[in-house]
Amino acid sequence: MNSKGSTIIRFCQQLNRPGIGDVLAKYEPEASDKAACVLLLLMAHFKEPKNAIMLEADPFATATDVESTVPFPSKPCLIVQGDMMKPTAWMLSIEQKVLLEHQSREGLQSQEKAWVDEPTCEHTLEEDIGLRMDFNVG
Fold it and tell me: Where are the domains of the chain?
């Protein structure tokens, strides 16, 4: 994410498209989450609504709170706790149910590193909903 994310940000800085300037105006390289910025830039570039795959929630909300107060899309989505550019934690929703909650920024970065370091990673969530996800990287 570090090098590819920076490349995407630099590319978007050269574009003059609606929404991209708004995302870049809120991005602070030293304080903002680069992954969140890149996702928002890609969504703006392809004219996707912000809430298509990312939702904002209270930083102190539990999975139960989020499930009862946030309208979920039918697709999987990331639930950002706190400011979209400076999240305090993330949750993952699949089939309108929170599966992973309170993933810290550091926790997500270590998961990202594990996925990138392994050519093939298998993540099984069978206990929760019987879903098996295989990520092939490389």
Answer: 1-48
